[in-house]
Design brief:
- It is a single chain.
- The two termini are 19 Å apart.
- Helix content is 44%, strand content 14%.
- It is of the alpha/beta class.
- It has five helices and three strands.
- The chain has a three-stranded parallel sheet, covered by helices on one side.
- The chain is globular, with a radius of gyration of 14 Å.
Length: 100
């Protein structure tokens, strides 16, 4: 039997709006949070994005002119495939950091 969160992630991954597909309330809420986070990320920094979803933070940083090393880790292969198709130059890897 699959854990209940698998159904939750499956529902999210199927959502046509990328922001909603990773659980954000809206694209504007996602952008606001990314803008706040970006205040603390300088060019040349290394960013590890745990639970990266579609790699939206990486795309946001690149679009804002940031240059550094970004690596997004995501356990859901559906989100990974969709994120890689959206912008292949954003580094996304399959990993479940919650595994004991």
């Amino acid at each position: 039997m699959k854990p209940p969160q698998d159904d939750y992630y499956g529902e999210l991954a199927a959502h046509p709006d990328p922001a909603r597909a990773v659980g954000w309330e809206s694209a504007s809420a996602q952008r606001t949070r990314f803008e706040l986070a970006a205040r603390h990320i300088r060019s040349g920094d290394r960013v590890l994005d745990l639970g990266a979803g579609l790699g939206d933070l990486g795309r946001f940083l690149l679009a804002s002119g940031w240059r550094g090393d970004y690596l997004g880790l995501e356990r859901d292969t559906r989100l990974l495939a969709r994120g890689r198709a959206m912008q292949p130059e954003v580094a996304l890897r399959e990993a479940d950091f919650m595994v004991d």
